[in-house]
Amino acid sequence: MSVLPPDPSSEARHAQTWALVRLICGHICLHGSMAGLRMAAPLLALRQGHSAFAVGVLLALFSLTQVFLALPAGRYADRHGLKRPMGLGVMAASLGASMAVLWPHFWVLCLGALLMGGATGAASIALQRHVGRAATDSTELKRVFSWLAIGPAVSNFIGPVAAGLLIDHVGIWMGGSAGDDNGFRGAFVMLALLPWATWLWVRHTVELPPVAQPPGATHQHVWHLLREPRMRRLLLVNWLLASCWDVHTFVVPVLGHERAFSASEIGAILGAFAIAAAAVRVAMPLLAAHLREWVVVSGAMVITGLLFAIYPLMVSPWTMGLCSVLLGLALGSVQPMIMSTLHQITPHALHGQALGLRLASINLSSVLMPMLFGTAGMVVGVSVVFWTLGAMVSAGSALAWRLRP
């Protein structure tokens, strides 16, 4: 009996699939560390008596480093590929969480937020650039970015839920009470170790060859992309949708604290959002050939506006969790479509820098918006923040429809 040789194309597809799985797992570990710190650090600040405005400043610092590092990180990824930026990001993220273990004070949390945010942003740019360059057509772009987008969705569940459970239980295990200093230290230890798992997943990835410039080609600069109307519309739509993620991350801990929810309940509400976002992204690769980027994005913006209108009226963990699930389904469908569109309208040599420009634009608002949320929350209440942004994102759906080629 003869044995047929293996199909080389099948072996290649298997290798590509496994490589993508490793990258997704690495992304989950690194992003999960930041997601957990974004939940735990504000809760510790509130426990220490800091105001909603101070919490807004703390959350803004997760984005501040990315504003200044995004474009340099994109250029660095264009020159050096994947593994070197990822290694530097792992070290910086672990250092940011480790400092909170040793000195759990507000200003140390702020420094940790700067390190964690910058590290995660730079590593994400390198990862997204690598995956986008490996895709061969628009359908594959939507498919691989849908799979890759599962990483942050899953990590937004793992990070906050694991951190919340440790905050509530480590203190009891050590003879104290739920939510004491030992509980927060236990959570920060876990968040400091998690980035190192990223390197274990990513270190064997094969680097792609550098982009070859044609002889006599003129030097291209990322700022030239802003002359394109579709790029400007894409950045504005992406900013509106990113603001929805920011306001949800900010308002849920504040509302939960006001309504005396436990850390586990707050983490579960944020985790429900993450599970829903992951679920819709699991389904999207199967439907990639039938999805149109502008239709998905504009529809998600309308649904988000409606959910933001009713979210503040929910007063129990269960009803807030239901809204969180529906919001996760809507917003979770957006990022793969945004990334697919971005790669289709950007030259290959500028992919890293274009990703950096996108990240810088949304994080510039993320620096300002949490402080604005905190100020507005103190003056008019967090419900008005939800309603205002809901109206803005609903109106922005018209811009998303105009992303049609």
Task: Please explain how this structure is put together.
The chain has 405 residues and is an all-alpha fold. The chain has helices at 8-47, 52-80, 83-102, 106-134, 138-173, 181-202, 229-258, 263-287, 293-310, 317-332, 334-344, 351-379, 382-395, 397-401. Helix 7 (229-258) packs antiparallel against helix 13 (382-395), helix 8 (263-287) runs parallel beside helix 10 (317-332) and helix 12 (351-379) crosses helix 13. Residues 1-8 have low confidence and may be disordered.
Give the secondary structure arrangement, pairings included.
Layout: H1 8-47, H2 52-80, H3 83-102, H4 106-134, H5 138-173, H6 181-202, H7 229-258, H8 263-287, H9 293-310, H10 317-332, H11 334-344, H12 351-379, H13 382-395, H14 397-401
Helix pairs in contact: 1-2, 1-3, 1-4, 1-5, 1-6, 2-4, 2-12, 3-4, 3-6, 4-12, 5-6, 5-8, 5-11, 7-8, 7-11, 7-12, 7-13, 8-10, 9-10, 9-11, 9-13, 12-13
**What is the helix fraction of residues, given as a range?**
over 70%
Q: How many angstroms does the end-to-end distance come to? A: 55 Å
- C-alpha geometry: globular
- Unreliable residue runs: 1-8
Biggest sheet descriptor: none
Q: Please state the CA-atom Rg, rounded to the nearest Å.
A: 21 Å
- Tally the beta strands: 0
Percent strand equals under 5%
From N to C, what is the helix and strand string?
HHHHHHHHHHHHHH
